[in-house]
Amino acid sequence: LYLDLPLSQFQTSDYREGTGNVPLLEGTFPTTGSATGIPVILKEYNTDKPHELEHVRRELAVYSRVQDRHIVPCLGFLLEDKSCYVVLERFNCDLEEYLQRVCRN
Fold it and tell me: How confident is the model over 38-60, as a mean pLDDT?
C-alpha cells in the first residue's frame, strides 16, 4: 500500500525510542475525513538495503504488542523521493474502507 503524505503536514504528537534505540516518530496527518487526523508512525529506512525493511517490520510488530494497538504497515514516499516507513493505526474497520473514509481528498 502506497500513500503520498506530505511531510510538511505531519504534526508530531510524540517522539519515542523504538527497540534498539531506533527512533520512531509518532503523530498525525490532518485530513478532512477526521477531526483528529490520521494517526501515523514514521520510520525512515534505506531503500537500497531491503533487509532494513524487515528489521523495521519486526520492530513495529514489537511496538504494536507493547502499545497494545493493532498497527497496519504501509509504505509512503515522502519528501524528495526519500522513503519513510509509514504505519497507520487500524480502527475497527477494514483498512481500505478506513483509508477511503479519511483520505477522500
Answer: 68
